[in-house]
Structure formats: C-alpha cells, structure tokens
Amino acid sequence: LSAGGELVTLVLGANAVDGFVDEIRTHLRRMHPGVDVMDYRGDQPDQPVLIGVE
Predict the structure, then answer these.
(1) Which of 11, 7, 1, 5 is nearest to 39 (CA)?
(2) What does DSSP say about strands 36-41 and 7-12: parallel, antiparallel, or unpaired?
(3) Could you tell me which of 20, 25, 19, 23 has the C-alpha nearest to residue 38?
(4) How confident is the prediction along the chain (54 residues), in pLDDT tens digits per residue?
(5) How far does the chain reach from its first CA to its final CA, in angstroms?
(6) Distance from C-alpha of 22 to C-alpha of 9, rounded to nearest angstrom
(7) The pLDDT value given to residue 43
(8) Average pLDDT, whole number, for the chain?
(9) To 10 degrees, the CA torsion angle through 19, 27, 29, 6?
(10) How far apart are CA 40 and CA 47, in angstroms?
(11) What is the pTM (predicted TM-score) of this model?
(12) Which strands form 36-41's sheet, in the order they lie side by side?
C-alpha cells in the first residue's frame, strides 16, 4: 500500500480463522486510514485468504 492503493479485497477461504477480517481492518485503519476493505467468503479449500490491492 505504500506504493499506492485505495481498496483491499479479501477473499476468505474455507480455513480462514474467525476474527481474521477484524484484525486486518484494525491494522489497515491504523497504518493506512484512507484505504477501504471489502471481504467476501470464497471458501477456496487451499488458501485461507486471497488479498487484492487496487
């Protein structure tokens, strides 16, 4: 995000840990307050989360 970006998209896998999104949101609000965070349940079996930055 230091090189730019306004939106972080999280696609949560089937094995995503409860509370993960809340921790990421808290961290991003502290470190990059202008960034929006969207999250979706993807339920992919082999990755806990996919992260995209735009």
Answers:
(1) 11
(2) parallel
(3) 25
(4) 888 899 999 999 999 999 999 999 999 999 999 999 999 999 999 999 999 999
(5) 9
(6) 13
(7) 95
(8) 93
(9) -100
(10) 14
(11) 0.87
(12) 36-41, 7-12, 49-53
